[in-house]
Amino acid sequence: MVKATGEPLVYIILVNYKNWQDTAECLESLFKLSYHNYKVVVVDNDSKNNSVTYLKNWAEGLLSVSYDEQFYTSTPISSSPISKPISYIHADSESIHTLNSIEKRLLLIESKKNLGFAGGNNLGCKLALAHNADYIWLLNNDTVVEQESLTHMVARFEVSKSKKEQLGMLGSKLLYYHTPNLIQAILGRYKPFTASTEHIGLNKASCTTFDNLKIEDDDYVVGASMFVSAEFVKEVGLMSEAYFLYFEEIDWVKRGAAKNFKIDICLKANIYHKEGAAIGGSTKENNNKSELSDFYSIRNRLIITKKYYPRFLYPVYLSLIAVAANRVRRKQFSRIPLILKAFKSFKKNTLWKAQID
Description:
The chain is α/β, with parallel strands linked by helices. It folds into 2 domains: 10-279, Spore Coat Polysaccharide Biosynthesis Protein SpsA, Chain A, CATH 3.90.550.10; 286-348, no CATH class. It is 34% helix and 21% strand. A hairpin with a 6-residue loop joins strand 7 and strand 8. The protein is globular.
């Protein structure tokens, strides 16, 4: 694609962890975008399954992606592979700082360790800011995007700028990959009393217009697709890496609000999400959630409560009893010590040394 003069420069950040197949399918859709002035950064979080080698082989045309034909026949996205080879830069997390310019459309970055969701995205954000990004799109690697999605999001932000609104972050319409006629979320809503979240628009028809939607103080942009301005990142800072996994987006929105940045939703940007695939969770039920996911979802609800909603800390402590009861009901008896470990980690404010390889 030819760089379009005058279009804002967008960096699209994907974090890969052992999921190169989903990442390659996501890349196939990204390289069909109608918007021209963008670059894609894939940060591999120390996968140890040769993910980067597979992605290089895909970019060189030596490896194809397996498609779910049912998905492509029920969406406007073409299943036809993009032409290869695709020029790319391959670097590690240390050598990227020596890049004077980025001429290639695709960058494959290998991290020396698993930095978590925030850390992996932050690595890409630092690179984007160092190379004159106007906008940054943090996108889950287990997504597929419609061709006009980026065009719509840039346009929404540019209109906001012309009106001198202080828009900092924009969400998308997230649809289920396996049931693309249903919405997963348009935004998230945090419930401080129980330190739990819910998805606004969950399981509504994809054509729902949300005419009366009012964004509330505890709403946030769901982490699967977060479109932010470079100004937002420069003023608010990068995502907090204290969480490792879960609740980072809520923290980011809260920090942005403290600097008067607002959030919004671009309902024209349709993103299809294979919910849970990127971290070993289930697309169906939470009872198949990995121990890694379970640990951080418990631990981080305590961290975010203490940071932003300290008056609810004791009710949230009590909610852990319900969490334990659910694990017993599901016969996940081995998860009870994990809950205690999460609580102790929160009290010590340390990361769990999880075995995640």
